[in-house]
Amino acid sequence: MAANIIDGKAFAATVREKVAGHVARLKEEHGITPGLAVVLVGEDPASQVYVRSKGKQTVEVGMNSYEHKLDAATSEADLLAVVDQLNNDPNVHGILVQLPLPGHLNEDLIINSIAPEKDVDGFHISNVGLLGTGQKSMVPCTPLGCLMMLRDYHGSLSGMDAVVIGRSNIVGKPMAQLLLGDSCTVTIAHSRTKDLPEVVRRADIVVAAVGRPEMVPGDWIKEGATVIDVGINRIERDGKNKLVGDVDFASCAERAGAITPVPGGVGPMTIACLLANTVTACCRANGLAEPEGLTA
Ligand SMILES: Nc1nc(=O)c2c([nH]1)NC[C@@H]1CN(c3ccc(C(=O)N[C@@H](CCC(=O)O)C(=O)O)cc3)C=[N+]21
């Protein structure tokens, strides 16, 4: 059986269209333009690409984009001062500090200095706690994008067996919370999991988020399962640079019922959800109704 391909790129375009509609309404009816600030410390080339892409898409949906590019040697105090300034700027509704930060900066400290209601990454401890207790929060963009695609494909996820491979704070853990919130039976697997292949074979939904190129082979996938590939790994093959996921696409697609490609799957949804979160944050900041279909 050949799997259905879940087209994250096309889905992301529909999410951006919805976002653009809400932005237009906020401007017309309330005179408010949502604003997203992205802070980049240092010159990691991959990070620069993402930041540029975020800025471009932010403007395309009609929002204001503020970019703060800081020197790699920026001190913690100086970075905290930038975040503080953005926390207090009424034109900024969302703040994203691009990770990873250079080693001399304490990531937890910086992330937790962002005002939780402007934390469009959903990484602040307050948002983590709110999500874990089923309260209204900012939801991390990558897991939110995965959830949107799963809901769209399946309708209800209730009672499904979901296995999340990877236990990171930015994807694995919040993904598991969201799946639990939709009444899946959730397993979080990781590098120490005993008999990972057998654990994955039980799953109706597999979310791979480990950062290891093509580590999940097709024979781990239950016939008809849905495979969400979060990995974005740059590898060299046949003398060419290639982008591959955490699953072996060709063999997994033979057994899966549906699968997300890399590129063109989860990645574009991540950025679309960042824009969605910014609109959500802007509506909340102004006491307006939540945009429908853009939150968890
Ligand atoms: N605070 C913070 N929040 C983030 O959300 C965050 C971050 N830091 N640091 C870096 C990672 C990475 N990330 C990506 C988003 C979109 C694509 C994406 O759209 N990828 C395209 C391919 C792009 C290409 O060709 O490189 C795709 O999968 O189709 C990739 C990677 C967000 N990140």
* Gyration radius, rounded: 19 Å
Low-confidence stretches: none
Strand order in the sheet with the most strands: 1-11-8-7-5-6
Estimate percent helicity.
40-55%
Task: Please count the helical segments.
Answer: 10
Given this structure, which CATH class of the largest domain is correct? Alpha Beta
Shape: globular
**Approximate strand percentage:** 15-25%
Q: Ligands bound here?
A: 5,10-Methenyltetrahydrofolate
Please tell me the total number of domains. Answer: 2
Instruction: Name the CATH superfamily assignment of the largest domain.
Output: NAD(P)-binding Rossmann-like Domain
CATH topology of the largest domain: Rossmann fold
Average of the residue pLDDT scores = 97
> How do the SSEs run, as a string of H and E?
EHEHEHEHHHEHEHEEEEHEH
Describe this structure in words.
It is a single chain. The protein has 296 residues and is an alpha/beta fold. It has 10 helices and 11 strands. It has helices at residues 8-30, 45-60, 76-87, 107-111, 125-132, 141-154, 172-181, 196-201, 249-255, 266-285; strands at residues 4-5, 35-41, 64-70, 94-97, 161-165, 185-189, 205-208, 226-229, 233-237, 240-244, 258-259. Strand 9 (233-237) and strand 10 (240-244) form a beta hairpin. Helix 6 runs parallel beside helix 7 and helix 6 packs across helix 10. The longest helix is centred in the N-terminal third of the chain and has 23 residues, at 8-30. The radius of gyration is 19 Å and the shape is globular. The chain starts with a strand and ends in an 11-residue tail after the last helix. 5,10-Methenyltetrahydrofolate binds next to strand 4 and helix 10. It catalyses: (6R)-5,10-methylene-5,6,7,8-tetrahydrofolate + NADP(+) = (6R)-5,10-methenyltetrahydrofolate + NADPH; (6R)-5,10-methenyltetrahydrofolate + H2O = (6R)-10-formyltetrahydrofolate + H(+). Residues 140-284 form the Tetrahydrofolate dehydrogenase/cyclohydrolase NAD(P)-binding domain.
